[in-house]
Design goal:
InterPro entries: Bact_polysacc_biosynth/exp, LPS_length_determ_N, P-loop_NTPase, Wzc-like_C, YlxH/NBP35. The protein is α/β, with parallel strands linked by helices. The protein contains 19 helices and 13 strands. Helix 4 packs across helix 6 and helix 8 runs parallel beside helix 17. The two termini are 61 Å apart.
Length: 482
């Protein structure tokens, strides 16, 4: 995965980053509030040599720099800490004094700085003053020769002792900035990990990669689609309807040399929108002037008749068992050249019925009576009905809902089709999240259609008016009904 892929994962899980940053800021603020203020008292020593024993300036400088390093260790020694505690009642032990002392020897100079940090401002200054006095006294004793002559090293206080007027810690701004940065990094890392661990189908590129088939459509999510699933009325001018029309175009030209006339629409799982996709695809094809026949072959949970506002009591099942002729149960929907064959009564053996010779003969006959036959089938992973129907079609269209189906489930559905040599025409990513820029482009360029006369609709917002195609059906269906 490239950098843009990781950024997309972070953007997709932005709430993780936000929560992590807020927690980090809260922790930093809590630590800042609960931390006692600390003050610094410092003193700077200058190391020099008044002795005439060292005449060479360069060698003398090296000698003093080495001594400064040794004096830094001497400032944090047990002996000096004990002498400081013995000199002044500070309420601290020798170890506590030693732990509060830090030294800095400026490189290339003979300056040595000692700093004492304490929560008590007065005690910090008092400790530093005592430390400076005891340190110079200790150095003088250590460096004085046994013969009592003047020591070759002299320590002078050139700065301090002084204590800061305001606490040096905690630093609220620094803590909050550091906490926010750490929270941002941690949140981004968690977002990437969650994205990598997420096995659900999240984008069109992954869907193409898993199925190994072209992406024929990417249908955007619309909040009102559940109440009005069909692309009619006001929904006919929506981005969703335009996406279905793109699917129609891609479906017709997916294979120019071998166009699919009988198309099975299926999905891996239930509830991914395959029935809605089958209905809308059939409507879009009929809008383009094709003679379209929509068959509801999902005999276990038929929904086509409900979506289109038709009577589904008699249909495909009754035709397959020989109770009625297909021409007597096919219904015309709306004003378009769209004929619908509902599912009919629920059979006890749907798989056997759909895989029967009667079903094969029916599809052969219907192929000649319509330009395109769209079949709504059952989900592939739930039952075998979908595969049974897809084998008899010219190809299958696999519908996948974004963010719901896992990659393994989509791969299993594609494998179920390929294992029986079903031609997978392509895949459709349903309820996809579309960028605002794309939605804006459509709104800016869409055609404004004058309001049409009102048409009665059912509770789902779909047009009613489906009626038997008797006297108005095609000649082919009239021949089949005889």
């Amino acid at each position: 995965m490239d950098v843009l892929g990781y950024l997309r994962l972070v953007r997709r899980h932005w709430w993780i980053v936000l929560v992590t940053v807020m927690l980090a800021l809260g922790t930093a603020a809590l630590v800042t509030v609960r931390t006692a203020p600390r003050y610094e008292a410092s003193v700077t020593f200058f190391v020099t040599t008044p002795s005439q024993g060292v005449t060479d300036a360069y060698q003398g400088g090296l000698f003093l720099q080495q001594r400064v390093k040794s004096y830094g260790d001497l400032l944090t020694s047990d002996r000096l800490a004990q002498s400081v505690v013995a000199e002044a009642p500070l309420g601290l032990t020798a170890d506590q004094v030693r732990n509060r002392i830090t030294t800095v020897a400026t490189t290339g100079t003979v300056l040595l700085k000692a700093t004492i940090t304490d929560t008590d401002q007065t005690r910090a200054l008092k400790t530093t003053e005592t430390l400076a006095a005891k340190f110079t006294e200790l150095v003088r004793k250590v460096e004085t020769p046994p013969d009592g002559k003047s020591p070759p090293i002299k320590i002078e206080v050139v700065s301090g002792p002084r204590v800061t007027s305001s606490p040096v810690s905690p630093q609220p701004v620094r803590n909050l900035v550091l906490g926010g940065l750490l929270g941002l990094l941690a949140g981004a890392a968690l977002a990437v990990l969650r994205g990598l661990a997420d096995v659900r189908m999240r984008d069109a590129a992954a869907l193409q990669r898993v199925t190994g088939s072209p992406l024929l459509g990417e249908i955007p999510f619309e909040s009102g689609a559940k109440a009005a699933p069909l692309i009619v009325g006001d929904a006919a001018n929506s981005p969703r309807a335009e996406a279905v029309r793109k699917l129609r175009t891609n479906l017709r030209f997916v294979d120019v040399h071998e166009p699919a006339r009988v198309i099975a629409v299926t999905s891996a799982l239930q509830g991914e929108g395959k029935t809605t996709m089958a209905c809308n695809t059939a409507i879009a094809l009929a809008e383009a002037g094709w003679r379209v026949l929509l068959i509801d072959a999902d005999l276990r949970r038929p929904k086509v008749a409900d979506y289109l506002g038709l009577d589904g009591g008699v249909g495909l099942t009754d035709v397959l068992v020989g109770d009625v002729q297909v021409g007597d149960v096919v219904q015309r929907w709306g004003e378009k050249s769209l004929l619908v064959l509902p599912s009919g009564a629920a059979p006890p053996n749907p798989s056997e019925l759909l895989g029967s010779k009667a079903m094969a003969d029916l599809l052969v006959a219907l192929r000649e009576s319509a330009d395109i036959v769209v079949i709504d089938t059952a989900p592939l992973l739930a039952v075998t009905d979908g595969v049974v129907v897809a084998v008899q079609a010219d190809g299958a269209l696999l519908v996948t809902q974004q963010g719901r189906t896992s990659r393994s489930q989509v791969a299993a559905a594609a494998h179920a089709l390929s294992s029986v040599s079903v031609r997978l025409l392509g895949c459709v990513l349903n309820m996809a999240k579309v960028a605002k820029a794309d939605a804006y482009q459509y709104e800016a360029y869409k055609v404004v259609v004058p309001a049409a006369p009102s048409v009665p609709t059912d509770r789902a917002g779909t047009r009613r008016g489906g009626q038997p195609a008797v006297g108005d059906r095609t000649q082919e269906l009239t021949r089949l009904s005889r």
